[in-house]
């Protein structure tokens, strides 16, 4: 029985470790997305300013909104990996508790 609980603890720890790596990747991706959104906002402001000087009227969404809005899902991705990390920690603790309980002599 201890072997089963040990395997559960190791799998929980593995899940925590791998999801921590994915959280780091999501945070790097979020930083890159932020850079892209800032670039699009600057480009949009420049293009709108030039077009307004020429007398253009805009009725559609801006470049920053049209192409930048779909990139906002990064926060949800990071939250999802945080949930996976929490689940891994709970699994790890359950495995450790099982090992401790299995080591006790049964009366």
Q: Which radius of gyration do the C-alpha atoms yield?
A: 25 Å
Largest sheet: none
So what's the overall shape? Answer: rod-shaped
Helicity range: over 70%
**Overall pLDDT level:** 84
Q: What is the H-and-E element order?
A: HHH
Number of domains: 1
Termini Cα gap: 17 Å
- Poorly predicted regions are none
Number of helices: 3
Molecular structure report:
The chain is mainly alpha-helical. It has one domain. Helix content is 82%, strand content 0%. It has helices at 2-53, 63-68, 74-103. The longest helix is centred in the N-terminal third of the chain and has 52 residues, at 2-53. The mean pLDDT is 84.
Characterize this entry briefly:
The chain has 107 residues and is mainly α. It contains three helices and no strands.
Topology:
Blueprint: H1 2-53, H2 63-68, H3 74-103
Descriptors:
107 residues, mainly alpha, 3 helices, rod-shaped
């Amino acid at each position: 029985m201890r072997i089963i609980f040990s395997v559960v603890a190791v799998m929980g720890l593995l899940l925590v470790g791998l999801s921590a790596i994915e959280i780091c990747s999501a945070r790097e991706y979020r930083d890159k997305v932020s850079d892209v959104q800032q670039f699009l906002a600057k480009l949009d402001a420049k293009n709108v300013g030039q077009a307004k000087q020429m007398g253009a009227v805009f009725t559609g969404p801006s470049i920053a909104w049209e192409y930048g809005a779909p990139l906002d899902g990064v926060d949800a991705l990071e939250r999802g990996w945080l949930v996976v990390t929490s689940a891994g920690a709970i699994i790890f603790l359950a495995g450790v508790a099982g090992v401790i309980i299995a080591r006790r002599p049964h009366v």
